[in-house]
Design brief:
The protein has 365 residues and is an alpha/beta fold. The chain folds into two domains: 220 residues, Aspartate Aminotransferase, domain 2, CATH 3.40.640; 121 residues, Aspartate Aminotransferase, domain 1, CATH 3.90.1150. The chain is 38% helix and 15% strand. Helix 6 links the parallel strand 4 and strand 5. The two termini are 28 Å apart. The structure holds pyridoxal-5'-phosphate. The site of pyridoxal-5'-phosphate has 14 residues, from helix 3 and helix 4.
């Protein structure tokens, strides 16, 4: 039986050429591809600077450190996100404060956010979930009023736009991931984008153990090894050269899913607000009738169709357990799933997946 993965990369450009160049020249660790990747990524996001890191998690960690977030501080995040968003706050000793999400776009709800601001709140990490941007103007204006810094977690939304501006350029810093399932991948890897030269300089120093510039093993503070390798950057650069066409593939696939599933009343499809460009990183749906999602996941897996459940809310994880109720987040988490969205997906695959989703829902109407 053919298996249809939930995600997956497409290496059809200069990947082999650039990676081979690293190996044949022995520039595997540091090298020219890192700077090339950073410069091109900054241009792509319309940011002044871009800095490679070892992961999305380390990007978030470095950014919080550079902004001086420390024990006693509170950082707001959506309750529905990948655990790294919360963990990075813990790494710096601060407290993540979970906030309810918006029912349509699934990112932090600005009204709920405002209600949770305290004297200790220092920052907000906005997550552009599954490829749709958060409502940045509203969030930025709340942040301005309360003197909070905004960081974007862009791990799932490379190339998405808010009022024609690229995400990652709409706040103090954007934190990206290039792990295997992302629109472009370096295996594991990350990037920080910012217009703040000082933030990038501090992150650069921390990223290589605060080594002094001439690298004579004089370290001015305790840092980290959070660097991306030249081989990884070579892979990233080759994909970045084609990112616009990769995004077009994601959008085209989403439009095909939409056209087949639009009549299914028992399902909430991904949306695109009038001010947004959704890049549909994972085409994600929510079943309106509770209790069916896991059965659908099982049914689809018998047909070779891989899916991914939505995240478990942060407040339900053992390390972050809290007695709070976030009805929207909880409903999405229990009833949401991502359908196959890999870059190598064919129209026939999408028709096959959609027909089985429809068949299952008709039977369970
Ligand atoms: C929303 C979000 N934040 C952070 C991360 C962490 O990125 P990484 O796995 O590269 O550390 C991910 C990874 O999938 C993510 O989806």
């Amino acid at each position: 039986m053919k298996s249809i993965p939930v995600s997956g990369p497409l290496f059809s450009g200069n990947e082999i050429k650039y990676v081979t160049d690293c190996i044949t020249t022995s520039w595997v660790s540091t090298g020219k591809y890192i700077t090339k990747f950073e410069k091109k990524f900054a241009r792509f996001c319309n940011s002044s600077y871009a800095l490679t890191t070892s992961s999305g998690t380390s990007s978030l960690h470095l950014t919080l450190l550079a902004l001086g977030i420390k024990p006693g501080d509170e950082v707001m995040i959506p309750d529905l996100t990948y655990v790294s968003t919360a963990n990075a706050i813990k790494y710096v000793g601060a407290t993540p404060v979970f906030v309810e999400v918006d029912k349509d776009i699934w990112s932090i709800d600005p009204e709920e956010l405002e209600k949770k601001i305290t004297k200790r709140t220092k920052a907000i990490i906005v997550v552009h979930l599954y490829g749709h941007p958060a409502d940045m103007d509203r969030i930025n204006s709340i942040a301005k009023e309360h003197k909070l810094v905004v960081i974007e977690d862009v791990c799932q939304a490379h190339g998405a736009e808010y009022k024609t501006k690229k995400v990652g350029s709409l706040s103090k810093a954007g934190c990206f991931s290039f792990s295997g399932a992302k629109i472009i991948t370096t295996g594991e890897g990350g990037m920080i984008t910012s217009d703040d030269n000082n933030l990038i300089e501090v992150c650069t120093a921390m990223r290589r153990n605060f080594a002094s510039k001439n690298n004579n093993f004089f370290h001015t503070d305790i840092g980290y090894n959070y660097r991306l390798t030249n081989i990884q950057a070579a892979l990233g650069l080759a994909q970045l050269e084609r990112i616009n066409s990769l995004i077009r593939v994601k959008i085209r696939n989403a439009m095909l899913y939409d056209s087949i599933l639009k009549d299914v009343v028992s399902v909430q499809l991904p949306t695109e607000k009038s001010w947004a460009k959704n890049i549909y990183w994972l085409y994600s749906i929510v079943l309106k009738k509770p209790g069916l999602r896991d059965k659908l996941v099982e049914y689809l897996s018998t047909k070779g169709i891989e899916t991914r459940r939505f995240f478990v809310p942060m407040h339900k994880l053992p390390v972050y357990k809290q007695k709070v109720r976030f009805p929207v987040t909880e409903f999405l988490s229990e009833n949401g799933l991502s359908l196959p969205s890999g870059l190598a997906l064919t129209s026939t695959d999408i028709e096959f997946v959609s027909s089985h989703v429809k068949k299952f829902l008709k039977k369970h109407a």
